Records
---
Amino acid sequence: MINRWLLLLVCLFTLSTVSGCFEQHSIENLTISMLVGIDVNENGQLIISQSSPVFSTEAKENEEDYEVISNSMRSARDRFDTLTLGLTSSNKAQVILIGKELTKVNGWQSLIDVFFRDSRNTVSARMVYVDGPVSEIINFKPKDKPRLPFHLSKLIDTALKRNDTTRTTIQDFHRQLHEKGNTPSLTAMRKEKDIILLGTALLNQQAGFVMNVTPGETKLLYILENKTRGEFPYTLIMPMNESEGIINKNILSFNMQKIKTKIKASYSDGKFKFNVHIKGQIYLTEKLFNKGIRDSFDELEQKISKLMKRDFTKLVTKLQRAAIDPAGFGMYARAYAYPEWKKAEKNWTDAFKEADVNVNVNFKLIGVGAIE
Amino acid sequence: MASSGGTVHEQLQHNISQLQTIFTLAPDLVIRSMDTEQGASAVVAYFEGLVDMNSINNDVLRPFFHSIHNQEGVVPVTVGNIKNTTKWSEIEHGLLIGKSVVFMEGQAKAFLLDTSGWPQRAIEDPQIEASIKGAHQGFVETAQLNIALIRRYIPNRELKITELTVGARGKTSISIMYLQDVADPEILTELVERIGKVDVDAIINTGELAEFVEDRSFSPFPQLLMTERPDSAASHILQGRFVIVVDRSPSVLIAPVTFVAFFQSVDDYSMRWSIATFIRLLRMFAFMIALFLPSIYISFLTFNFEVIPIQLVLSIAESREKVPFHPFLEAVMMEITLEMMREAGIRLPAPIGQTVGLVGGIIIGQTAVQAGIVSNIMVIVVSVTAIASFIIPNYDMGAAIRFLRFPMMLLAFMFGIVGLVSGAMMLVSHITALTSLGAPYGSPLSPLKFSDLKDAFVRLPLWKMSSRPTNAMPKQSKRQGNNKPDGDAS
C-alpha cells in the first residue's frame, strides 16, 4: 500500500514538471491577436500591427487595433503587452497580412520564424499579400461586415471553394520556400472601397513579389498543380461572330469537373521538356450566342479544348517569362530527370524559363444544361 | 444465556418456564396452552406479528382442539413445513424468525411450525431500474419470495442455492444462487469463504454485504452488481454468474461482473439489436462526457484555448468576461450545486420535490448567467454533464462517475490536458487491474476476448452469442444452438 502511494506521488511530481501550473492564462485575460500585419512604413521602419477582439461589454468597439515599430515579431509582442489589457497571444491568429513594401525587403521571410519556433503559436494562419499598405486593412471597420479577422478569413475560405484564390498557411509558405521545385504563392488582397481579393500573388524563390494573377488564372494554376478540389467555373469568349456590345454575345460559361492532370518531364537538347495532359468533363452553365449546340456538339467540345489550351499555354508562358514556377514543374523535373535536375536545382527558375512546356487539353462535353 | 445450549424437557411446565427465562421483556411472545379432551396438554408459542395469524388459528389451533391423538412424534397440525428439534438454541432462533413452536406433554422434543407471516410489501415495479419492455416485478424484502421470483425464470434442477447466515445478532440469511453445471466452483468457494469471514452484528442491507466481500474497498467502482430486477438476476445466472440474495433487502448482488455490465440493461435484449447497439454506444459516450466534460472545459479555458474553434473562443471569452471566478472554481461551484440538487431531489418527499426542480432551474440557468456568477458555456457544460450522468443505467456506477469528475477537474486545473490524459490513464490502468471475485473486471477488453465483445459495447443479434461470457469462467461455455433465422438471404 505504501508503495502505491509513493508511486502516485512520483507520478504527480513528474506531472508538475510537464506542464506548468504557472503557464495558466484564463481565456478572458488574453488579448488574442487574430490579425497580424507586417509592413514597412515610409521611413523604412518595420511596422507590426495587430487586431484583437475586445470582450468587455462595456467597451463600445468590439475590436482593438495597435501598430508598433519594432524589429521582430516577438519584440513587437512585448510592446503590445504594454498597450493591451490582456496578455498578447497570437496562438489563434487567423490571417497574417504581408505588406507590399515588405516583400521588397530582402530576407523578410525570416520574420515568421517565431510561428514555428514557439510551439504555442499557430502555423495554420492564412498568409495574405496586401497590394498596398497593411494599415489600410487593419484600420478598416466596415459597418456591414463581421469582425475583420472573420471577414478576411471567410472571404478567403469561400473564394477557395470556387478556386478564385489561393490559401497559403504559414506552414504551406514555409514548405514552398524550402522546396526547390516551386516558388511560393500567396492570397492577394487590396483595399479599395471594400476589401477585394485579387487572385494569387506569385513570389520568387527569395519571397520577393513578382506579379498577381487573376482569379481565372488562379483556377488554371490549380489545374496545373493537379489540385482539383472544389468547383471550377470558367467563362470563355467563343469565336462565334456575334455582336460584342454591352452584352458580348460570344460568351460561354461552364463548370469543369473530374479534372485530371498528368505531367511528364524529360530532358533533351539542353533543356527540360514538359508534356502536360489535362483531361476532364465540362458542363455548360451559360451560353449567350444563338447558334444551337445539338448539331455541333463535337465541334463545340473541340473548340473549348482548343481555347482552354490557349489559356493554359498563355499562363505558362507568362510564368516562364517572369521566371517563377508556382505550379511546381520543378518537382516533375526532379522525378523524371534527376541528374539534370540536380545540376539545375540551384537556379531552377532559370532552367524553367528555357523549358519547353507543351499543354494538351482534352475536355469532354457531358451536358449542355436544362434547356436547348 | 445459560439455557440456550440445553435440550427440551419432557415436562410441559418446565419447558414453559424455560421459554420465559429465554425471552424476558418480550411482551409480544404469546404462549398458548391447550388442554384436549384426552387430557393431554400442549403449548403453542410464537411472536405476535412475526406469524401469520390465519395460519395459527386455522392450521394449528383448530386441528389441535378437534383431533388430538397425542401420538408419539406426531403433531396434529395442517402446516406444511414442520421440523422437530430438541435444542433450545434452534427453538429460540425459530421463534425469532417467525416460526411457532409446539411443546407436548410427555415429549422431550418440540415442533417448529413454519407459520411465518411478517409484515411485507407487495411485489411492485422496480423503482430504480425501471424498464420499458422488461418484467414489472421487482424484488421485495423477503428472501424466499426473491428466490421464487428467480426460480420462475429458471425452473431447472441445476439451479442450486447455497445458504449461509451472517451476523451475530441479525442472523441474516444469505442465499447464493447459481447453475451447478455451469458456474465455476472455485469462485463459489471463494464467495462462500468471503461471506463466512464476515463477522458483524447484522447486515441491514445488501450494500453492506457488498462492501465486506468485494475485492478492493478503496476503488471508486462497484465490483458487485446490485440489482432489483429478477429478470436481470436470472439472465446473469444463465451466464454462469452467482446471485447473492440477502434476506430483508430488496436488491440482490451479482458476481463476478465486468465494467461493461454496468452499462447494460435488460431492455437491450428485447429491442432490435441495431438500436440496442446504438443505445449502448450512447451510454459509453455519455460515460466519457459525464467524466471528462467539466475538466475538458477547465483545461481548454486555462491552458489550451487554441484547440477551441475561434468563433467559440470569442463567445466563451465574452461570457466569461463578467465572471469573477477562475474557471476551476466556477466549474466546481456549479457541479457541487448540481450534486446538491440531485441529492435534495432524492430525499425530499414527492410533493416538495417539485420545488427543487423549480429552484434548480434558477441556479443552473439564465439567471445565474445574468447575475455574472457563471458563464453561458458553463451552464451548458453542467447541464450536459448532468444529463450524461443520468443515462448510465446502474446507480452505483453513475455515482462513481459523478464522484470521479471532481479529481479529474482538479487534475485539469493543475496540469491541463496532460493532467486529463494522465487521469484517464490512471483510471484505465485501475479498471484493468481490478477484479471482481478474482475474475477480471476489465473483460472483455482486458484480457481481450473477441467473442465476448459481441455483447459488450455493442449488442449483436442474439443468435450470434452462442457461448457464455468467459469472464465468469463457466464450465459449460456453449449457451445455445444455431438459432439464425432463415429470413435474410446471406
---
Amino acid sequence: MFSVSTVIKVKQLGKKYTIHHEARERYTALRDVINKKTKTVFSRSKESQPVKEEFWALKELSFELKQGEALGIVGRNGAGKSTLLKLLSRITEPSTGEIEIRGKVATLLEVGTGFHPELTGKENIFLNGAILGMKRQEIKKRFDAIVDFSGVEKFIDTPVKRYSSGMYMRLAFAIAAHLEPDILIIDEVLAVGDAEFQEKCLGKMNEVTKDSGRTVLFVSHNLSAVQQLCQNSICLQNGSLSYSGSTKDVIEHYLGIKNEGSRIIPHVNKDIYITDFLATGKNGGPIIPGESCTMTIVVFSKNSCSKLHFGIGVNDKMGNRIFTPFTKYDSEGLVLQQGSNQVHCQIESLPLMPGNYDIHLYVGSAFDADDYVAGGVNLTIHPYPFFKYSMPVEGQGSVILKQNWYL
Amino acid sequence: MEQIVTIKQSNTEKNYWKDLWNYRELFYILSWRDIKVRYKQTVLGILWAVIRPLLTMIVFTIVFGRVAKMETLSIVPYSLIVFAGLLPWQFFSAALSESSNSLTENVSLITKVYFPRLIIPVSSIITCFIDFLISFIILLILFLVYQYTPPVQILVLPFFVLLLFITTIGSGLFLTTLNVKYRDFRYIVPFVIQFGLFISPVGFSSSMVPDQCQWAYSLNPMVGVIDGFRWCIIQGAPNPLLQYPFYISLSIAILLAFSSISLFRRMEKSFADLI
C-alpha cells in the first residue's frame, strides 16, 4: 500500500541482460569473410559459436521516494544508473521486482529527443513537446515562455538543421524545462552547452524542484550539481545500492569507494575504442605536484586511421573540470595503426594539488567522438612538498602554481 | 484521481488501450511530421502524391491493355479498371515498407522516451493513408474525364476501405515486429511487395484465375480487398461477397490483424533492448 506521500516505490528491482560474445576475428577482406563462412558451414567449428553470458545491470534495488523530494543518483560508469532510469521511465521492463509510480512521469534522458532537422524550431517545439507527453493545448499555452527562455525567437521559423549547436541545445532544454509532470526523471542533461547555459539550466532546475514541489530523480556525474539540487541521494555500485542518505554523506561515501572494478569497460562494438588509461610521474615514478607527468591512453583501432584527436578531461572530485589537454589545439591529429596503440600526453609541470581526480577520455575527429569515457577513471596526485614551508589546504583550490612575491 | 502504474515483468497492462488513448495526439503529430518532412526540399512537393499513382496507372494501362492485349470486354475504360485495383495496392505496398522501417528509423525515440510503441508504425500507416485519400481525388477526376458513373454499390466502398486498413495493419505490424529483431526483413519486405503485385489482381481480374486454384489464390488477403474495390467502382464487375474465396481472404486478414497486434504487444517491451 501507498502511504499518502509516497510517489515512487521500488521493490527488489533487477534487470538482466544477456550478452552475446561473438568469437572475435577481424574481417579485413571479403575473401576472408567468404573463407571463414565456408569453413563454418563445413566444419561447424566451435570457436565461431556465440557465447552467451548473463549480466545483471541492476540487482535487488529497493527505495522509496516521497512527493516533492529530489533524489540524486550517483555511481561510477556501469553502476546501473542509466538502467534504473530506463526502468523507471518504462523504456525497458524489469527482469525481477517491481516499481509503483503515482502520477505523471516525464523523462529527460536526452534533450531534444525526436527533434527533426528538417522541421522549423516552432514545429519541433510541438513535436518534442508531444513526444515528452505534453498536450497540444499545454504546448500552445507555454509556447511563448519556451521561445523566450530559449532565446531563439528570430530563428523560430528556420529549420533546426540551420541552427548552431548552442541554439539547438537551448531550444531543446527550453521545451524540457517547461514540462510540468508530477515526477521528473533527468539524466546528465546538464552535461551539454557552455558554462553560462549550464548555469541557466541549473537555475531552472532549482526552481522546478524547490519552488513547485515536484518530485525529481536526478542522475549526474557532476557532484556539485547533485549537491545543489538534491537533499537526499543514493549511490549505486555494480548494480546494487551501496549507500543512501543525505546527499553530503552519499557523496563522501561515493568518493571513498576504491577504484577497484572501475576500470574502463571497452566499447568493443565500436571501430575505435579506449581500453585503458595510465599515468606516471617523472621517470615512471608516482605523480607529484609541479613535476612532469605522462598520461597514456591505450586505444584499439579496427583499421588504421589518420587525423584522430585525443582529449583528456581532468575533473576534481566534485565533478568540476580543471583542464582539458586536447590534440586539436595544436596539431592536425594523430595517425593510428591497426590494432592497439598507446597515445601519450606529456605535461611539463603538473599544477595540481595532491588528491584524486576523475578522468574523462575522448577519441574522435575534431568534432565528433568515436569513443568517450565519461569519468570513472582515477588519477592520483601524491602529496609532496611543493612549497618550502607549507601547502594549501582543502578549500584553497585544486591548482598550485609557482609564485614570486616581491615589493 | 491520479493513476498508479505498476511496472514489473510481463505485466499485461490493463491500461494498455487507455494509455494508447491518452497518447492519441502522438498519432497525429508523428504522421504530421512524416508528411511535413516527406516533401521538404522537393520542387513539386505534395504533387508527388498525385504523380506517382497516375504514372503507375498509365504504365499499367499501356503494358497490360495495349501491349499484352488484355483489354476486357466491358465498356469500362481499362485505365479505370487498373486504377480501381491500384488504389488499394499502392496504399498497401507503401504502408508495408514505411511501417516495417518505422521503428528502426525512430530508435532515438524508443530508447529515450516511453509511449505505446504501437503509435510509431500505425502513424506511418496513417501517413500513407493520406496519400491514399489524395489518390481518390485522381479517381474522381478520371470519372469526370471518362464521363463515367460508378455503380450504386460504391456506397459500400467504406467497408472495403476498412478491410484494407485492417489487412494493412495486420501485415504491416507483423513485418515491423520481426524487423526489429531480424534485420533480414529489410530485404524481405521489398521482395514481398514486388511478388505481391503479381499474385494480386491489380493488372488482371480474379476471374482469370482457374477455379481449382481459387482457394490458394485467395489466401492472399489483398485479393478480397482489391476484388471489393473493383466491384464498388467498376460496372459489371463480379460481386466478391457472393463467392467463397472472398471469405478466405477476409478471415486471413482478420486473423493476421489479431495475431500481429498480440505479437507486437508481446515484443514491444523488449524493443528498447533489441533495437
